[in-house]
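User: Is it possible to get a 3D structure for a protein together with its bound compound? The compound here is protoporphyrin IX containing FE. I've pasted both below.
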Amino acid sequence: MEMSVFSVSIALVFFSFLPLFLRWITDRWYLRRVKTESDGPKIPPGSLGFPIIGELLDFLWCFKFLKSPDDFIAKRKARYGDTGIYKTHLFGCPTIITCSPQLNKQILGSMTEEGCLSTGWPSNQLLGNSSVAVIDGLSHKKVRRHLMEAFNSPRGLKAFVSTAQPIFNSAFEDWASKGRIVAYDETKTATFSNICDMLVSFKSKTQLERMESLYRGLMAGIRAMTINVPGTAFHHALKCRKKLTGIILDEIRERKAKGIQKQDFMQILLESSDENGEKMTETEAVENIVSLILGGYESTANVMTWALYYLAKYPAVLEKLKDETRLIQKRKSGDEYLTIEDIKAMEYTPKVADELIRLSNVSPFIFRRVVKDDVVLNGYKFPKDWKVIVWIRAIHVDSAYYEDPLTFNPDRWSDYKPKVGTYTVFGHGMRYCPGNNFARFQVMMFLYHACLKYRWELINPDAGMKFQPHPKPADGAEMYFSRAT
Ligand code: HEM
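Assistant: Yes, that's possible. Here is the predicted structure of the complex:
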């Protein structure tokens, strides 16, 4: 009897100290090569968690099970103080999280520009070595200049405004004929058709369905572990990438061989030249078109799902939006589409779009990787090869910057200019999202046409939310959708 009490006590002591011991081992393992001096820069506060998995369980606990993603940062603030910077170990890497406007701005701005940090995700194996999203330095500048020229050209803007509206209208008609839809699925298909038409003039339903399925495969691999073994999501994604680049390359070559000119983004991109008169190579054009479709497809569709969701829940906002819509329509004849000037002249709709993009937090984090030795910020050391996660979501839902932050309130944007670093939905600095206007204008056109002729009602208004891999209503925003008559 005495023996068993003794054994139980030993086991209790062992299991209560085991987590501490394991955490201590992980810290020793990763910090053994990081030199710090007593009066020099320090490693940020926090824990590297357990061996191999780090703090992934806590992350999943907050995001998947509690469905309260903001608890992850709140816990660290409570435990280690409101430093806005913490060490952790997530997604297989020792990592530094930053979550203050000033630190986020410095990471995305000067530190990225000075080449201390490189992109941390996704992998270049999946996007290609000349994709704007993975390259650095001069090559990044060069490719970006081509992209920005195409995005900002009056020809590009005109093409995109005239492409998007018929696609949205025909999607709405299709939804109304179905009567009951899952908005998350439908907005993805509509956005995919839109982005493919606008970038490469692809219109065939069969081709779009095939490509969308390849993109899903690519996206799944981007979110998975980089293990290239048959059967893994990463392996499948590599195959999808190969097929997608093949499709775009065939299109470029066909245009060149037959002298075909089309009114789309790819045409503008192929014709654009940098300050030395150099054009993009075929590989650069292909890999960047694939990356643009990837960057612009699910992100914008997510915001549109949230648009239908929030407008169904906030009828007063919907009414105000309809007022503006009707006013604009009165100035136009019949079913005439919006022009870029109409969109730029809107007053309330952009506030709704900005509020939707803030609240939907489709890119909750931005990833970087430390690529230089002795990187120091605010007295904290950033060890080489560690990842950095700029936790932009934390700022967008912080009551210190947004009153009643989880309420959908487009009026908060009236005469309000966010302080630096507090509205970084599209990032900041040299990697600022090149598709930001494209995304905002798309959302505004979507809102205009949805409000003009349709009505919708959530089937499960209290369905809750999912935060993994992106925030979305748990039922995908299932709704009744019909013509307003
Ligand atoms: C609401 C929709 C969107 C959101 C919230 C969003 C968000 C972001 C963010 C936060 C970044 C910065 C990443 C970083 O600093 O590493 C980014 C970069 C990027 N986005 Fe977007 N984006 C959206 C729509 C689009 C669209 C429509 C396109 C293309 C048509 C696009 C293409 C890209 C590309 C290519 C990059 C990489 C830029 C670079 O590394 O230089 N995005 N986006």
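DSSP finds 17 helices and twelve strands in the chain. The CA atoms of residues 218 and 237 lie 4 Å apart.
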